[in-house]
């Protein structure tokens, strides 16, 4: 499994042969454990999501929702950066909707935090929580793409991701009253 994560992490299009080579086994052995590339890619993504879930569960989300969101986005960025190519392989290999299904628990955590922040008056309510969560998801993926293409320094990404997400969720300033 680690060989699949490693090889797919370097090349989302890695073949079963490439992964078998990385693991130091033959293709027949690899196919003995995983009947298809699709099954192997899904198993690799599930393993990475489980590792990520361990990290995300440790984040205290009981305090100020802004602090929780900052922590989630900074940690989420690091997790995504580590898994970007495996996620790309999953998106091109797995059936439509399967990647979203596997991400349901982490996404629910973000949705719940945004809704709590809206209820407490610290996040905007003029945009639905689901749309805000979707925007945050796109920021994470956009930052990963920008790091991969050299447009963004990986060391800056966690701070930028957190600042952008907080800016998007912030309650907009009141419009000046016109007389």
UniProtKB/TrEMBL annotation:
<keyword id="KW-0805">Transcription regulation</keyword>
<keyword id="KW-0238">DNA-binding</keyword>
<keyword id="KW-0804">Transcription</keyword>
<dbReference type="Pfam" id="PF00440">
    <property type="entry name" value="TetR_N"/>
</dbReference>
<dbReference type="InterPro" id="IPR036271">
    <property type="entry name" value="Tet_transcr_reg_TetR-rel_C_sf"/>
</dbReference>
<feature type="domain" description="HTH tetR-type">
    <location>
        <begin position="1"/>
        <end position="52"/>
    </location>
</feature>
<dbReference type="InterPro" id="IPR050109">
    <property type="entry name" value="HTH-type_TetR-like_transc_reg"/>
</dbReference>
<feature type="DNA-binding region" description="H-T-H motif">
    <location>
        <begin position="15"/>
        <end position="34"/>
    </location>
</feature>
<dbReference type="InterPro" id="IPR009057">
    <property type="entry name" value="Homeodomain-like_sf"/>
</dbReference>
<protein>
    <submittedName>
        <fullName>TetR/AcrR family transcriptional regulator</fullName>
    </submittedName>
</protein>
<dbReference type="InterPro" id="IPR001647">
    <property type="entry name" value="HTH_TetR"/>
</dbReference>
